[in-house]
Amino acid sequence: MNETEARGLITDYYLSESHTEDDKFMFVEALRFLIDEYHNPNDMHNLAWFYAEEKDFRLYQKYLEMAAEYGYRPSYESLGYLWYYGQTGTVDYEKAFRYFSMGAESCDDHLRIGCEYKIADMYRFGYFVEKDEEKYVEIIERLYEECSHPEDLFSLIPPEFLPWPALNYRMAGILESEGNITEALHLLGEARTGFAEYLRSNPSWWGNIEEMEKVVLMMHRLSPSTDGLTDLYDLFWLSEKECCLKFLYRGIPCTVECIAEDGKMVIRFNNRWYRSISDFFEKAKIGGRPVTALFGELIEYQVS
Question: Distance between CA atoms of 117 and 102, rounded to whole angstroms?
Fold first, then answer.
């Protein structure tokens, strides 16, 4: 294998909508060849993300750390998340804070902002640092103001990499604490749309699914009415009790059932069972496509 062949294999892999095990093998071999021969940290980072999608977080960590050693700044944010959420089985807030701080100090705008709002979260909850609600509010308000002028910051950044939904959700919480429920709901609506778009382009990424759950539950808490039913993501709220959600996909009736079993709610859809709503959103498919990738194509929702 030479560099041209390796790059061609990688390009073909990214352009394909489905991958066999042989495709994955050759993709990994191509990246490992390039890493061994040319030590490009971007290749290390790309291989790390392949392993993240395969749920092999040990190798995800290995290649992120390898890229970080070469000063590849996007890896700082990813390593911050890895330790913040304990993706390898161990939560380490000190390491998370260190990597988020490195990203906040050295990354370009969208990565910097992503690191900064996680630092804000750490001040909010007292993770590694002393709990400081005022500092949390100050950081979020400053970042939200920066993102109010996207033409200045993000003109060359694809929308799926923008941190707006996460900031909108956090800003909505601040507005709620100030009694401004109307504006909070407006921001939550924008956050919901943003996370839905993220999930359409990256259908099974657990982080966006987790954030979407927070947004939906907060929306229904602030406006507790079934009139707010808008799309499949309302299952996060509906699944608090047994129910059926029916909808159409290209004229085909579909039903998601939320069923109480042994003290917890499980999901049945297309003759398959899912252990939770999050598990459903990570794995469920219609016609071979993830349900999260079908945002906007599912219509006529009914609850029973």
Answer: 13
* pTM score, whole prediction: 0.85
- Sheet strands side by side (includes 243-249): 272-274, 264-269, 252-261, 243-249, 298-303
Q: Measuring CA to CA, which residue among 113, 197, 170 is closest to residue 147?
A: 113
Structure tokens at 10: 């990688």
For the stretch 86-102, pLDDT in tens is: 999 999 999 999 999 99
Measured between alpha carbons, how far is 183 from 170 in angstroms, rounded to an integer? 12
- The type of residue at 162 is L
| Among 95, 97, 78, 98, CA closest to 207 | 78
**DSSP labels, the chain:** --HHHHHHHHHHHHH-SS--HHHHHHHHHHHHHHHHHH--HHHHHHHHHHHHHTT-HHHHHHHHHHHHHTT-THHHHHHHHHHHHTTTS---HHHHHHHHHHHHHHS-HHHHHHHHHHHHHHHHHTSSSPP-HHHHHHHHHHHHHHTT-HHHH-TTS-GGG--HHHHHHHHHHHHHHTT-HHHHHHHHHHHHHHHHHHHHHSTT-HHHHHHHHHHHHHHHHHS--GGG--SGGGHHHHTTS-EEEEEEETTEEEEEEEEEETTEEEEEETTEEESSHHHHHHH-EETTEEGGGGTTTEEEEEE-
Single-letter amino acid code for the residue at 54 = E
List, for residues 201-260, the tens digit of each pLDDT value: 877 677 889 999 999 999 999 987 655 567 899 999 988 889 999 999 999 999 999 999
